Amino acid sequence: MKTMKMLSACLLLLPFISCTQVQDTENDAVIEQKIETLLSRMTLEEKIGQMNQISSYGNIEDMSGLIKKGEVGSILNEVDPVRVNALQRVAMEESRLGIPLLMARDVIHGFKTIFPIPLGQAASFNPQVAEDGARVAAVEASAAGIRWTFAPMIDVARDPRWGRMAEGCGEDTYLTSVMGAAMVKGFQGDSLNHPTSIAACPKHFVGYGAAEGGRDYNSTFIPERRLRNVYLPPFEAAAKAGAATFMTSFNDNDGAPSTGNTFILKDVLRGEWGFDGIVVSDWASVAEMIAHGFAADSKEAAMKAVNAGVDMEMVSYTFVKELPGLIKEGKVKKSAIDDAVRNILRIKFRLGLFDNPYVDEKWIEELYAPSHLEAAKQAAVESAILLKNEKETLPLQSSVKTVAVVGPMANAPYDQLGTWIFDGDKTKTVTPLKAIKELVGDKVQVIYEPGLTYSRDKNMVGVAKAAAAAARADVILAFVGEEAILSGEAHCLADLNLQGAQSELIAALAKTGKPVVTVVMAGRPLTIGKEVELSSAVLYSFHPGTMGGPALADLLWGKAVPSGKTPVTFPKMVGQIPVYYAHNSSGRPATRNEVLLNDIPLEAGQTSLGCTSFYMDAGFDPLYSFGYGLSYTTFKYDNVKLSSANLKKEDVLTVTFDLENTGKYEGTEVAQLYVQDKFASVTRPVRELKRFARVTLKPGEKKNVSFELPISELAFWNIDMVKTVEAGDFALWVAPDSQSGEEVFFKVVD
Ligand code: NOJ
Questions:
Q1: For the domain that residue 112 is a member of, what is the CATH number?
Q2: Which keywords does this chain's UniProt record carry (predicted)?
């Protein structure tokens, strides 16, 4: 009852979704004392039981035997509140010590109300979008009794072949850090102790996104400096934001699987960052160390995982089976078990589970609450990226009387939700087709002829039919992309062209001579250069979730103005991968005047093309670089000023500039601040994003915008593997994307 009252009070405060959290009633010292008291009463088997996470199965009775004996600390994948309470009752009332279970689920971009996939949220460059999305997810998931989500996924990912790029925030360390921390805040609220707060679990620790060849579960080779400069910072930011738990990754980096990697789990996470929460393995990743050839059997796997610092094992049962023997043999110390159990109990206490383990069994009506749907729609609006808009094709004007809605994604309620939507309900999805019809009413005639029924469909008869129907329209809206199943875990691709006959569809539509507006809904950047050429306008919407339809309809008709920017580089062709903006300076950078394949003279001399870093068939530039995105209006950057051109390491640099809306529409620009450390003890990236801001301006309006950048944030892991700011010359750009802007300079002095 108490839970429901607080929950309703919280929900009443939505539209802006942050709730006044109740304060933690117990301070850390009291919790630590409780942990020690409880620990002193626990048998070894009960301690090991806390370290065991099982996946929900069968009837309550099937699981209750283990729970009664204290052999389960956490259950994942149980989302029925009645069953959650029944299981919790067994733990609280029938186990010897009454330790509550921690109920977990992958709630990645929404529980019921599905927000855009995290990659889409990242395109908004708006941490509030990420925080709101996570808060809505937490409110809805906690109503089912879930108090732990395996999110945010903050693996920096620079290879779109990797299907899991969809789940993260893209290629950039800083953007991922900001968005990831915002998600942690949204999931956990102001206090973990609140019944709508769910523990976050930044994952996958660490380096998983750098899988060789973009193939999931593959090995990574990330040397320590790159690990520290590129892959670790988002996790450090999440730890600083108070993330309660961390998950180890599946990959082995330079030969060490993360689940058995003492350096990352003990030295970095606990030692350097002071993390005191739970480290959980990924699904069976303890036992999988055997397949890696890193452990000979389940005994060695359990030993390596616990000794490296894993507190809880997800579903592979080696801890329960092997730890008693390992302790007897002295291969795992009792103190290691005690430490792991302390970490687990600490989070259970902080979540308030001992006092309030149950959930109200009436599913709350607020699932899919109007305020949740509105927030999801706004997120989808802000996530969409306008890649092309020739002759102001968009927004559609009142002169457009007939539109053809074409393509397999126009009315694909399941697929527009994207990956990881275990609990989302496709019947609640509003598709573009439905939203467009609602928006235009009888003012515009809508011809719907999908042509292809799903993204892999190769039905050329359908293509011809769609083209014939589309020829009757003033404008063609072609919704293409990827089905949800084509991205996400284990769903990697070696070919990033549009699947099925979608390219043929766009080509046939273009042949009609009517303007084609291509809207792509996908889980990754696709190599759509050809389709862009054939289209008058292109909107890219990483799978936009439940409210993707209304968001896109508003954008197409100008009720909303696009403001998203690419959170990841779009390659022209797969062979360019990895292609990302923050690459290190080459000794022979491309000049962009290189001679390409078709212009090479016969029997050209060996060095006649110039010896620079480029592909003869793809040049150097990607299709779209990081941070790119257009608006219906235009913006002018001017008058960039630095507070000083000589700064000390402890100073804060203030960068000011004028941003003016020079077009016809009110719009929001994501202004970006990049820095380059020109000369250092190691080669540094050509640019790194350091700040961004969304600035909304009316037509003709000009604002003076400022960024504050502490010089300490220019620190990096240098040649001596020390994190430091090195004195010297720096370049800085204030720009609409990672490739433009006027360079200005400053110096850092000792
Ligand atoms: C495996 C995935 O790698 C991880 O992200 C997920 O949280 C777990 N399975 C649990 O479902």
A1: 3.20.20.300
A2: Glycosidase, Hydrolase, Signal
Rounded to whole angstroms, the Cα distance separating 62 from 708 reads 57
Asked if pLDDT for residue 10 goes beyond 80, the answer is no
User: Looking at residue 485, what DSSP letter applies?
Assistant: G
Specify if 672 maps to a domain: yes
Domain that holds residue 648: 635-749
Write the residue with the smallest CA distance to atom 7 of ligand 1. 150
Ligand 1 mutation pick, 198, 278, 314, 420, max ligand atoms within 8 A of CB: 314
- Protein residue whose Cα sits closest to atom 3 of ligand 1: 282
Give the number of the atom of ligand 1 that is nearest the alpha carbon of residue 77: 11
Q: What percent of the chain has pLDDT over 90?
A: 95
Q: Is residue 582 part of a domain?
A: no
Q: Is the pLDDT of residue 521 over 70?
A: yes
pLDDT confidence of residue 593: 87
Q: Please name the amino acid found at residue 594.
A: E
Q: Give the end of a domain, one of 341, 363, 385.
A: 363
- Which ligand 1 atom lies nearest to the CA of residue 167? 5
**CB 249 within 8 Å of CB 201:** no
Residues annotated catalytic, as ranges:
282
What is the per-residue pLDDT across 110-147, written as a single tens digit (0 to 9) for each?
Answer: 999 999 999 999 999 999 999 999 999 999 999 999 99
Q: How many CB atoms lie within 10 A of CB 435?
A: 20
Asked if 195 and 360 count as a contact pair (C-beta separation under 8 A), the reply is no
- What separation in Å is there between the alpha carbon of 145 and the centre of ligand 1? 19
The dihedral over CA atoms of 232, 237, 241, 246, expressed in degrees to the nearest 10, equals -10
What CATH number does residue 669 fall under? Answer: 2.60.40.10
| Number of independent structural domains in the chain | 2
Q: Ligand 1 centroid to 283 CA: how many Å? A: 6
Q: Indicate whether 14 pLDDT > 50.
A: no
Instruction: Out of 340, 363, 386, pick the residue that ends a domain.
Output: 363
pLDDT tens-place string over residues 583-605:
999 999 999 889 999 999 999 99
In a domain, 584, yes or no: no
**Which of 198, 269, 204 is CA-nearest to residue 239?**
269
